[in-house]
Design goal:
Length: 74
């Protein structure tokens, strides 16, 4: 997957990967359609951070979920 392109499909892919890695019970609440392509770089930063960590602490998961919530379109 070429994540260098700012597309809705890439956002969907990254959000789904983040939800899987974080094992989000409320993953349905974090729909990829809630994010704008304007926030692509921030979403990609979160994605890369999540994918590069083998284990995440509870506080890290909470911080990442909070950041994703902040990035959601209003």
């Amino acid at each position: 997957m070429d994540l260098s392109q700012k597309t809705a499909e890439n956002i969907e892919y990254m959000i789904e990967q983040i939800k899987t890695k974080l094992r989000m019970a409320s993953g349905a609440a974090m729909s990829s359609t809630a994010f704008s392509v304007d926030q692509y770089e921030d979403i990609r930063d979160v994605y890369e951070l999540v994918m590069n960590k083998s284990n995440l602490s509870i506080s890290e998961v909470e911080a990442l979920v909070s950041e994703l919530g902040r990035l959601r379109s209003r």
